[in-house]
Design a protein that fits this description.
The protein has about 250 residues and is mainly α. It has one domain. Helices cover about 65% and strands about 0% of the residues. The protein is built from ten helices and no strands. Helix 2 (about 45-65) packs antiparallel against helix 3 (about 70-85) and helix 3 crosses helix 4 (about 85-95).
Length: about 250
């Protein structure tokens, strides 16, 4: 019996994760009511929400990049803000279902990440804007973490883990897992910067020479031997070709 393809494994995994977080939210509402209560917004809950929505912003930027129709992109973003990783899992599963059999067998992560129409995103301003934005967000999260520790102490206390705080953590780590799927394909340098410096670490990548955000999506496909200038238009690749971009 043939082993399941990577596309099938990832698709089924995100289906399970989506069902899991949906069940978690439904159970928490049933046992603890709705989350829109002031007493739930403790300092560490607020810090977790800031961290969560920074990650959601990354997923949202990818959705905007993927969707050529702005109305459809806005609808997805609204669902993403309201439902968090439930939407994340649903969107990723949908992208896997859109793969052709050939794409699924070659390199499903590559084809899920990239636009189907092959068009590039909007010029250098998007890259400069992303670099500045993620630097600010990284600093914001670091400041939030330091401030919360200063006023509320360590988060490793049992009384903090209310039903909704626990559900938020589950939601948060499902989104983190989705981001790690991308990082797993990426270079060790990017992983190091991302994990040690948070989202602000993206600023350390040399995005300034790239013509668009498409080049950032291509970062996982790199090689020590082949180096293509970032200003070069990137052709569709039939499979993972391990070409290095933006690390000049």
């Amino acid at each position: 019996m043939a082993a399941p393809s990577l596309a099938t494994v990832l698709r089924n995994l995100f289906v399970v994760l989506g069902c899991g977080i949906t069940a978690t939210v439904v159970y928490t509402i049933a046992t603890d009511g709705l989350p829109f209560r002031k007493q739930l917004l403790t300092p560490w809950m607020a810090a977790t929400l800031v961290d969560f929505y920074i990650n959601i912003l990354v997923i949202g930027a990818w959705i905007i990049y993927k969707e050529s129709n702005w109305i459809r992109a806005i609808i997805w973003i609204v669902f993403l803000v309201c439902l968090g990783s439930i939407t994340t899992c649903g969107y990723i599963v949908l992208q896997f279902f859109k793969l052709t059999p050939q794409e699924s067998m070659q390199d499903p992560i590559y084809f899920v990440l990239l636009k189907k129409d092959g068009t590039e995103s909007k010029g250098k301003l998007s890259v400069v804007g992303a670099r500045v934005l993620f630097t600010v967000l990284g600093c914001l999260m670091l400041g939030t973490l330091i401030y919360t520790i200063a006023i509320d102490g360590s988060p490793f206390r049992q009384q903090l883990f209310t039903p909704w705080f626990s559900a938020t953590l589950v939601d948060f780590y499902v989104t983190v897992f989705a981001l790690l799927v991308y990082l797993n394909a990426n270079s060790s340098i990017l992983q190091l910067y991302f994990l040690t410096s948070g989202l602000g670490g993206i600023q350390r990548i040399k995005l300034g020479k790239c013509s668009s955000l498409d080049h950032f999506v291509y970062l996982p496909w790199q090689c020590d031997d082949v180096r293509v200038p970032c200003a070069t238009t990137i052709p569709p690749l039939p499979a993972r070709s391990r070409i290095s971009y933006c690390f000049q």
